[in-house]
Design brief:
This protein is mostly helical. The chain contains 6 helices and 2 strands; from the N terminus they run E-E-H-H-H-H-H-H. A two-stranded antiparallel ribbon has the order 1-2. The chain is elongated, with a radius of gyration of 32 Å.
């Protein structure tokens, strides 16, 4: 028979103690003090109830946090923004992933995760198309034109030697140089 660690478990001092474990066996009622919020001691399953209550408390906390975050989105003026919807879907994806403790749980959640990823992809694509059509996203030609105008403005106030260095740095950035934001098109 396996050894049971009884460290920290207390025996009752009187048979009528109301905290007495309610488990019965052929030898009579258990002589240990029951776990909090349970009728049984750890040997007879009282600790399982504590663990279950702890998990339920944590799930309730996560649920409340999630509801509060969604309510903040719902109360905001920008609920209809595609970016907000992308944020909500990413938050939902993160919540599902955080609940997966094993590979098996991850596999079981793969269908809803795949659906969320597809929805995120669709919204991101729509958002990018909308940005381009509204003119809020620049392509390389527009960025180059804007830089030409910025260089013209700078040229009015800077001597020619420094202006050449500024132009070279900006061209390097636009062509995908060391910290370039726009790469060369293939």
């Amino acid at each position: 028979m396996a050894q049971v660690d009884m460290t920290g478990w207390e025996r009752i001092k009187e048979p009528e103690d109301p905290r007495r474990c309610q488990a019965n066996s052929a030898q009579g009622q258990c002589l240990l003090i029951r776990c909090d919020q349970s009728d049984y001691c750890p040997i007879h399953g009282g600790a399982k109830k504590q663990k279950s209550l702890a998990k339920q408390t944590y799930r309730n906390y996560q649920s409340k946090t999630y509801r509060d975050r969604l309510n903040r989105f719902a109360e905001g003026d920008g609920l209809k923004s595609l970016r907000d919807e992308i944020g909500i879907l990413r938050m939902m994806t993160e919540a599902i992933l955080n609940r997966c403790d094993t590979d098996h749980e991850l596999i079981m959640k793969s269908t809803p995760l795949a659906s969320l990823v597809m929805q995120i992809n669709t919204l991101v694509t729509s958002c990018q198309k909308m940005d381009v059509s509204l003119g809020t996203m620049m392509d390389k030609a527009q960025a180059t034109q804007m830089m030409v105008e910025v260089i013209d403005a700078i040229a009015k106030h800077v001597d020619e030697d420094k202006l050449d260095a500024i132009i070279e740095d900006i061209q390097s950035i636009l062509s995908g140089g060391p910290s370039g934001v726009l790469g060369e098109e293939s």
